Amino acid sequence: MHAAVVRSFDRPPRFEEFAAPVPAEDKPLVEMVAAGLHPRVRSGADGTHYTSDGRLPLIPGIDGVGRLPDGRLVYFVAGDEDPGTMAEQALVDPRRSVPLPDDADPVTIAAAMNPAMSSWVALRRRITFQPGQRVLVLGATGNAGRMAVQIARHLGADRIVAAGRDPRRLELLSGLGATDVVSLAGDPDKDFARLGEAAADVDVVIDYTWGAPTERAVPAVLTRRTDRSAPLDWIQIGSLAGPEITLPSAVLRAANLRLMGSGQGSVTARGIVAELPSLMAELTRGTITADALPVPLSQVEEAWTAPVEPGRRIVFTPSGD
Q1: CA distances (Å), 2 to each of 14, 74, 186, 279, in order?
Q2: Whose CA is closest to 57, among 45, 72, 42?
């Protein structure tokens, strides 16, 4: 078969011939239809993701849509020890897959499930989220952040504060459910003061940035809360701005901050898969929207480093359709 193959962590994958995975009784072989190029895929391909074991060569791709031998289309999350999904064929563990509705677009599903899953699983599995609660999305102008705004709205959030650095994309978030938008592209002192005022009494923070923005956002929000004893669930999902922060100990004593992560390990694979059908149903209905850019897998090396319009997600189609 042909696949995107990573042979060095400092180079993009190349389209090459590669040995097809060997199917087993409990893991059939599927013909890949679509696989999304998510940030998690990029970090796995350059060896920087926290699950990377350093082994090469590897096929990138953590999920996708495949066609089973009986013709059915399924969305699936690749097994931890299985080759990636950016190939003409891949292995599917039925326990990590769900069938596509008849009216679902495979390319859209491949583009949207991974970024949407991050906030969907966080709000439904990591905390007990209640309709009427208030949410801050930190890093709301990325693909996952944009979907987090829509998901928070769908799950009944009463107020959604969206914060990010892209002014053009921030403007669009008001139409997707954000009640307040805060730009973080200007003077940091002024920006985070405004953020603290807008998000002072939120109940949940969905954090895709970490690093310096989170270092500033935590005290900016906590010091302005009306009731510091009111619980604040800060869910760390991404680290776009850096892998570490400095957190003063006084912050933890002076407010009811509950800091947690959401990702592989903090949520079981079974728990994640259990959420897939309901999320896919909302994507198919158009409750949550995504902008996919289909690219033939044969062009993976060029597309890997090519600029992409903000808000779009590359989806590799092995057949070239």
Answers
A1: 10, 21, 46, 31
A2: 45
Alpha helices of the chain — where are they, by DSSP H? 39-45, 106-121, 143-154, 167-173, 188-198, 211-222, 249-254, 269-285, 300-305
Note the pLDDT of residue 51.
Answer: 75
77, 273 Cβ separation under 8 angstroms: yes
**Inter-residue contact 57 to 5 (CB < 8 Å):** yes
Whole-number Å distance between alpha carbons of 141 and 54: 31
> Mean pLDDT over residues 44-66, rounded?
88
- Laid out side by side, the sheet with 204-207 consists of 180-183, 159-164, 134-138, 204-207, 232-236, 257-261
Structure tokens at 193: 């003061």
DSSP strand pairing (73-77 vs 291-296): unpaired
pLDDT digits (tens, 9 = 90+) for 194-220: 999 999 999 999 999 999 999 999 999
Question: Cβ(214)–Cβ(251) under 8 Å?
Answer: no
Residue from 237, 208, 194 nearest 142 by CA? 208
Do residues 90 and 29 make contact, with C-beta atoms less than 8 angstroms apart?
yes
Chain segment 133-183, per-residue pLDDT in tens: 999 999 999 899 999 999 999 999 999 999 999 988 999 999 999 999 999
What is the distance, to the nearest Å, from the Cα of residue 274 to the centroid of all Cα atoms in its chain?
17
Helix axes of 106-121 and 143-154: crossing angle, nearest 10 degrees: 70
Residue 320: pLDDT band with limits 50, 70, 90? low
Structure tokens at 80: 């931890």
Q: Cis omega (within 30 of 0) on the bond before 39?
A: no
